[in-house]
TrEMBL record, chains A, B:
Transmembrane parts of this sequence: none
Protein name, UniProt field: LacI family DNA-binding transcriptional regulator
Superkingdom, taxonomy of origin: Bacteria
Pfam families: LacI, Peripla_BP_1
InterPro entries documented for this protein: HTH_LacI, Lambda_DNA-bd_dom_sf, Peripla_BP/Lac1_sug-bd_dom, Peripla_BP_I
Keywords: DNA-binding, Transcription, Transcription regulation
Keyword Transcription: yes
SMART domains: HTH_LACI (SM00354)
Source organism of this protein record: Shouchella hunanensis
Species classification: Bacteria, Bacillati, Bacillota, Bacilli, Bacillales
Segments forming domain HTH lacI-type: 2-56
Length: 337, 337
DNA sequence: CTGAAAGCGCTAACAT
DNA sequence: ATGTTAGCGCTTTCAG
């Protein structure tokens, strides 16, 4: 494996000159520059980035933390981020936290130890006061999820509460009035005492819309989950209830898909017997039968803007940023409501 | 940010002793060890891994290359790999190549520059002779896809040809005889002259089964694609044909889902007017209506065994490996055929 | 415009 | 059992 020394020898110059060519410094004789470039090509030389890092330059690497890459929402967001990062010749390392606080911290260490230039948190489980200190080592941008008390770092997300209020009202105005609610949690139950502000905000939007219309929120109609199987189970539970809801709002299209799939087996008609609302507008939403009414999350924009914000921060191009950016999240009314 | 020197000073020992404690060497006085550990804790010290790498020790990091993380097949495989890696306290960096040969090579450089200990290729676009030289820098394990002429590195996959033969025969025996075929390609068309052995093997299995039963393979019934939209387009194309097939075998559930969704719009009955076969058995397969007949890919096992193989190679626990491991890929007959 | 030299933080002989 | 020393490959003053 060739080093900068080999290139220097081959090109008949010093290591410094090679370094200058590498880093596009001005004031390098054209002939020497050419000689160096030829040597680099011939040797198939690539700078050892561990050495570059050690020397204190940037790593051109971003860490992206998600709780669960198999969630189509996350893979879509990550895909958009990757596109932007690649375009700016940044590399992206994907960290699957599985919703574990220790894993999250573990990956944040990458920033402290200068293995990455910046971090994107697409899901958060630790308290902000735990994460905040890492800001001194480099920029952090949040995407989608956010902790309470967030400050010092921007977040790109949607207005969760508003989205839920809108969809709840839609249901109410369509004549449904016994509405069940399924909260979303990811992978693991959150650690004792820690709650997801995102989920809380959504629920608050739901409750507010219900109360505004004088409707009661039944505690026995409150569920939680994140997977298709969770959805299936929820439908079965509902069927066991003496007092059944006529609609259910869920925290993800996956849960909704499970409910719909199980409903077919149990001969429950959607939306006549039970209206179903999803969240995310995943690719699956239009493939289901009936097609799913859901809230569209602008995954591409979300990933793109988040990565762009981080890169801008890295380039010191940001004087002052909006603490919160809300992207539009229109409701998609289809045939499940 | 504190360094090993700070720790040494604080603990009143030399840097070597700190290093020894860090790396669990024997022969360290218990008192000093304790002093060092205390100093580490007080200073909140973490070794700078760029320095460690430069020095040539392991990185505890694996690079995983996939062409398209939004493909549920890949995210499932990656998820399984991540689980195994985490369990062995390895970190995983995800490289989304988008089917680009230069990106693939770029990420392979991580191995050469000692930024990762090993590489997993879940998709391959470069020729094996291009990739082969990287083996000298560390182990490479292939998963799912494979280049022609592969040697020196193990691959965990399924018997593509056999899977296609089996499913084609199923269709034939069920009475379908005008079978269209949709090849799978990922993200980009492959570079000129480069073909996907995986896709070729699948097609070969299809053709062989057809010919064995004396059926003709129509060239106008050959399509290719990878997305839901590709599937939609294919259905439209088929409807424009004067001589229509009565069944279609596709290279992924996503394509199949697109065909089914579009069929509904066009009032084409599945499977009466057109039988549809997918590939992968993605979570969506059972959510579609009709539920999709497909080939089950053991994503979890595939990811798990691939990562385990790589870790075993890294631990020098492997004398000699099976060049090819075929995992079972049973056909899932549901209602679309 | 270019080279010599110092040093980033760490580990592994080599001495003791 | 522990310290001293020599680099790993690179960038960046500092002189020329």
């Amino acid at each position: 494996m060739s080093t900068i020394k080999d290139v220097a020898t081959k090109a008949g110059v010093s290591r410094s000159t090679v370094s200058r060519v590498l880093n596009n410094h001005p004031y390098v004789d054209e002939k020497k520059r050419k000689a160096v470039q030829d040597a680099i090509k011939e040797l198939g030389y690539t700078p050892n980035s561990s050495a570059q890092r050690l020397r204190g330059t940037e790593t051109k690497t971003i860490a992206v933390l998600v709780s669960r890459i198999v969630n189509p929402f996350f893979s879509a967001v990550v895909d958009a981020m990757d596109e932007v990062a690649t375009m700016h010749s940044y590399r992206m390392i994907l960290c699957n936290t599985r919703g574990r606080a220790d894993q999250e911290l573990h990956f944040l260490e990458l920033l402290r130890t200068k293995q990455v230039d910046g971090v994107i948190l697409a899901s958060v489980v630790n308290e902000w006061e735990t994460i905040y200190p890492y800001l001194q080592y480099g920029p952090i941008v949040l995407c989608n999820e956010y902790p309470r008390g967030l400050h010092g770092a921007p977040v790109i997300t949607i207005d969760q509460k508003k989205a839920m209020t809108t969809i709840t009202k839609h249901l109410l105005h369509k004549g449904y009035h016994s509405i069940a609610y399924c909260n979303v949690y990811d992978v693991n139950h959150l650690p004792e005492g820690v709650r997801s502000p995102l989920a809380e905000d959504r629920y608050e939007g739901f409750v507010q819309a219900m109360e505004m219309e004088g409707k009661v929120v039944h505690s026995s109609w409150r569920f939680s989950g994140h997977s298709v199987d969770d959805g299936r189970n929820i439908l079965r539970t509902i069927l066991g209830l003496t007092n059944r809801p006529d609609a259910i709002i869920t925290g993800s299209d996956e849960i909704a898909a499970g409910i719909i799939a199980e409903a077919k087996i149990k001969n429950v008609r959607i939306p006549e017997d039970l209206a179903v609302v999803g969240f995310d507008n995943q690719p699956t939403a239009t493939l289901l039968e009936p097609q799913l009414t859901t809230i569209h999350q602008p995954t591409f924009e979300m990933g793109k803007q988040t990565m762009e914000m981080l890169l801008a921060l890295l380039a010191n191009q940001v004087e002052q940023f909006e603490p919160v950016t809300f992207l539009e999240a229109p409701i998609q009314i289809r045939h499940s409501t």
